Amino acid sequence: MASFRRYLANDSISGKLLTLLISVTVSLVLIACGALTITTYLISKEYNITQPLHQIEALFGNPVLITYLLESPETSKPFLANLSSLTSLQSLNILDANKTSLLSYQNTESQPELSTEQSQLAVYLPQKKQTVTLVLAAKPSLSNVLVLAIHIAILAIIATAGLICILAIRRVKHIIIHPILHLIEQAHTISDYDNYNVRATKFNNDEIGILATSFNKMLNKVQARDQQLINAKDQAEKASQQAQTLALETQRTNKKLALEVQVRTHIEQKLTDLKKYLSDIIDSMPSALIAIEQSQHIQQWNKQASTLFGITESDACGKSVYGVITCLKKHQDTISKALALNQAQTIEKVAIKHPSQEVHYFDIVVYPLTYSASANNSSKKGAVIRLDDITQRLFIEEAIVQNEKMISVGGLAAGMAHEINNPLGGIVHNAQNIQRRLSPSLIKNQELAARLHIDIQSLNQYLEERGISRFLNNIQDAGQRASKIVNNMLQFSRRSNRVLQPTQLNTLITRTLEIAHSDLAIKQSIELNTIKIRTYFDPLLDKVPCISNEIEQVLLNLIKNAAYAIHQRSSPLTEGLINIKTERKEQQALIIVEDNGVGMTADVRTRIFEPFFTTKEVGSGTGLGLSVSYFIITNNHKGQMQVRSTPTEGTRFTISLPLAASIAA
Ligand SMILES: Nc1ncnc2c1ncn2[C@@H]1O[C@H](COP(=O)(O)OP(=O)(O)O)[C@@H](O)[C@H]1O
Ligand SMILES: [Mg+2]
């Protein structure tokens, strides 16, 4: 049974169905046959269906019964009378060994039958110790017909069942097995050939049909998935190809980038060099250059600007230009105008105090950055402020003007001096003669007075008392002063033929200072400690070709003027100071005389070298000191004389003498 079950479990569905159908059919047939037999039996029983012969035989074959029946007719008679109920029994005969009837019974109630069944049964009777033969005749029993009918019915049932089974099998095959096999076949096609295009046919709307639909749906999904997978694979392949291409491109780009980096590094280096070079150029400019942004904050600040304002680039950058250069505040409008109109603006002659406290003059030009402005990049808009120190140029210009003036005025003065010299000489000479000829000490005067009877003493007394002698003295003094002036004036035209002698400037200055000490005003000032004179001699300065007494005269002039200027200070807070320095500068020997006196206004400064220009009261200054000094330096020594002066702060005279030896004056 177990092996059958195993076989059944492993059998194909069609096999299983076949087995099931056959089993069901056989069971149904058996049940039907059983039911038929039972029904037949019950029916035969109900309707007294005749017993078959062998049953009667078994009933009467009993030796005891036979012995009893054979005892006497009386005993057998009631028994036999009751046999009529056995409708199927037609006759009963008991024969002895000689075939003689011992008992005979004929069923009269029994319908005669066309055919009868006969049986003979030998029965040994132990009581009689003889063997008798029981001969029975019975109707052909109805049960046989019934059995035949049953057999026919069974056969019909089997045949019908077989037919039904065949039909069922065919139907089952058609509606179950065929779709299942179809499904299996499709599944095989799919699994063996990976062909997802096949679809299961839906034969019926049963579970297999649903299964086919689901199978198809699943296939659709699988196919879609497969397609997706294929697509994904394609995409992945494409992506991989792209990745490869990209990798190649990246490699190429990397190479390019590396090259670009190299080039950029190179360019950067070049730019750095260029920047440095430009900074060098900007720094080496003699002008102070300051780049400002639109907001007027400093962006760049060159070396000259650092020197000029004493502020480093890092300190200046990023700050407002007006905060760093306060003197530009009053020119803010001009700078803003340059930025607004995009036009260069110039501010001339701006005085700026140097960190060394010297005042320098500057021309300031504001150049707007035209490129950045045109590029419309307001963040890059700005300007460059150029400050040119024009102090030296101004001095030179002043010196040129001065020179021109000195040449013309000097010539004029010299001419005048010549003209005045003779009449002046006459005046002085004649005054001298008058004094001499009035003198009582001269014998010639005494003789003439005696001859004319004049008391020369009385005459002198008269002259004295009338003040004529004083007048004469005044004429004498004025004449001498005038002749001094004239002599000075004559210096303008005099061509000195004296050769310049190499002279130790330091010694010369020391000697001049000694002479200056004898000057009354200076002497007093020094003694009263109101003026201090300091000297700074350059040890590198050797002998300088010059005419020593002329240089002495110049120095004396300068010291006297300085002392005067110091005295002119209204409320001096510091002591008066005169510094005298010597310095060697290239092929020049410099003598610097500076004081902290009242200083000069620009008007005065431009005129000081003019002959007769003086700010002193009439009588106390001739106005010739500086003009003569200038003439001595420029004409006789081929040097230069410059002045720098700031009102209330002081004055500095700088004399430069060429060191080239033996210059003929
Ligand atoms: N050191 C000085 N400080 C200020 N002013 C000076 C100085 N030296 C010269 N001056 C001015 O120059 C003028 C001309 O000087 P100078 O030619 O020596 O003539 P004087 O001394 O007779 O006036 C002076 O009157 C004075 O105004
Ligand atoms: Mg003077």
From TrEMBL:
GO terms for biological process: regulation of DNA-templated transcription. Residues 274-320 form the PAS domain. The keyword Chloroplast does not apply. Pfam families: HAMP, HATPase_c, HisKA, PAS. It catalyses: ATP + protein L-histidine = ADP + protein N-phospho-L-histidine. Keywords: ATP-binding, Coiled coil, Kinase, Membrane, Nucleotide-binding, Phosphoprotein, Transferase, Transmembrane, Transmembrane helix, Two-component regulatory system. The chain crosses the membrane at residues 20-43, 145-169. InterPro entries: HAMP_dom (IPR003660), HATPase_C_sf (IPR036890), HATPase_dom (IPR003594), His_kinase_dom (IPR005467), HisK_dim/P_dom (IPR003661), HisK_dim/P_sf (IPR036097), PAS (IPR000014), PAS-like_dom_sf (IPR035965). It comes from the Bacteria. Residues 219-249 form a coiled coil. It is found in: Membrane. Residues 174-227 form the HAMP domain. One of its GO terms (molecular function) is ATP binding. Residues 415-661 form the Histidine kinase domain. This is histidine kinase.
